[in-house]
Design goal:
This protein is mainly alpha-helical. The protein is built from four helices and two strands, in the order H-H-H-H-E-E. 28% of the residues are buried.
Amino acid sequence: MPASINKSSSEAPANVLAGALALALALTPRFVPPCTPAAEMASPMRCHWTFQADYLLAAATLIVAGALWVVRHGEARRVVGGVLGLFGLLVIAVTQSWGIGLCAGSHMPCHHTAHWLWLWAALLIVDGAVIFIRAKTPAGKIIPADPWEVVEKPVKGTI
């Protein structure tokens, strides 16, 4: 097994950005706190459940972003980029009123937290799109049974 799993240095910035955005999604509610904690209220506010769902989406995003360091095949990188973009859309959808939603008052702190999450999610969608577009299998190359080695495709008519 090679020392470096993903040999392409041109893919590293997108990989790092995906991981950083996943961490930002997970840590934003901690540093930009939403509404009053559920422990201080009789029942949790609507935004409490929204940010719980966002935390789970951020954890899944971090796992998928970690897969970028292992996945080398172009089609697999396309899938990972698409999943990252989908997770970005889900983060935005969860905060909408037709999703789980936020508190009714636009002056509530959860709306400020949601704006930061929307920024990170939008950047994640763009990063996923970049990964999707740039992922390709080099012409004339096939992925053999050993995923760590790329071999030349045989030319027709030769043995």
